[in-house]
Amino acid sequence: MEQVKARESRACGGSELVGRWGLDPQVDYLNHGSFGACPTAVLEAQARWQRRIEREPVQFLHREIEGHLDRAREALAQFVGARSENIAFVPNATAGINTVLRSLRFEAGDEIVVNDQEYNATRNAVDFVAQQSGARVVAVALPFPIASPEVVLERMLAAFTPRTKLLVVDHITSPTGLVLPIERLVREARERGVETLVDGAHGPGHVALALEALGAAYYTGNCHKWMCTPKGSALLYVRRDLQPRIRPLAISHGANSRRTDRSLFRLEADWPGTHDPTPWLVIPEALEHLAQLLPGGWDEIRRRNRELALWARQHLCTALGVALPAPESMIGCLAALPLPDRVGPASEPLGLDPLHVALYERHGIEIPVFPWPAPPRRLIRLSAQLYNRREQYERLARVLRAELSGARA
Fold it and tell me: What is the pLDDT of residue 407?
């Protein structure tokens, strides 16, 4: 009880838009990047879809759902700059990554290029398919702090050999929050005969996307993060010429369909089995709801979030005496900075950094502290969303100084 009272009295509270979300007022929520946060109005729209399904499940799921999925996919396609026939719905980016990797065929000696800032779940999937086939995973070391996007280009392209078959790369890195030079990486890789699988888990809603123009073979991204849709909504873009080789994780009714009005890619992806489709169906409502929160719509949302992230990063670095670890050109709505080495063991069973635990339990601040590149070295990563405001990061800076000073004492 005392802990709850402390949070209530110390949390700064969010921006004037925080009421659009159902966030705990006792917590300064500075971690939108991990799982997103869905506005109340969008959750209500999802509930309406759920009630509609349950009113007559067979009518909806057997006779009507296809048209509703088409509508949702078209809205999403327009938002990410793609043709709707090249997009499949998946529950999350991890499923999108696995869908592609488990569909491709590698031979012994083939090489898959990744980097050491790749999201752990994605790296595990790459390692799994490589172990099954005898392929080799080439992990490129990317520095952090980092001087420029050219460092990424030079190091990753230097890893290519005649055996390189696939480049797997984050659009925006999870631990360090770096926006990587995806357009140039995809172009340079294709010029070398290598296709790219982009892990865009943080992409949709975070940065402006033009997937057709990008030209990547495969791009998967979460909608539940920066688009603020319900959990369980994500996209998988597959370039049209490569769709015949991509099969869903669950082989279901579409596999032997005789229909000719839709591609096998769409027939298989749209019905993975009985599930709750409402996180996908509510995407148009989510896009519209967020767009009307600011006069400039989504362009203003991205601009405002990025400006807040850049301000917060500068404020924290100044307060802690840390140099800016990356150029502004590599920062979107996430920003990470190095902290002094960890003191003491990680908490069990989740292995959380003691500072991570203290920030939440003692101060009601939800923000991740990552081991990077390996314990005891670590980073703290902030997110900036419309419900956040500067005072929350100012409070974070004061708390961090106090906690770190106490840890060193």
Answer: 56
pLDDT, tens only, 303-318: 999 999 999 999 999 9
Query: Residue 394's pLDDT is what?
Result: 97
User: Does 44-288 carry CATH code 3.90.105.10?
Assistant: no
SS3 readout for the chain: CHHHHHHHHHCCCCCCCHHHECCCCCCEECCHHHHCCCEHHHHHHHHHHHHHHHHCHHHHHHHHHHHHHHHHHHHHHHHHCCCHHHEEEECCHHHHHHHHHHHCCCCCCCEEEEECCCCHHHHHHHHHHHHHHCCEEEEECCCCCCCCHHHHHHHHHHCCCCCEEEEEEECECCCCCEECCHHHHHHHHHHCCCEEEEECCCCECCECCCHHHHCCCEEEEECCCCCCCCCCCEEEEECHHHHHHCCCCCCCHHHHCCCCCCCHHHHHHHCCCCCCCHHHHCHHHHHHHHHCCCCCHHHHHHHHHHHHHHHHHHHHHHHHCCCCCCCHHHECCEEEEEECCCCCCCECCCCECHHHHHHHHCCCEECCEEECCCCCCEEEEEECCCCCCHHHHHHHHHHHHHHHHHHHC
Residue spans per domain, the chain: 2-30+297-408, 44-288
CATH of 2-30+297-408, one of 3.90.640.20, 3.90.1150.10, 3.20.20.70, 3.30.70.640: 3.90.1150.10
The parts of the chain modelled with pLDDT lower than 50 are 1-9, 408-409
pLDDT of residue 14: 67
Give the predicted TM-score (pTM) of the model: 0.94
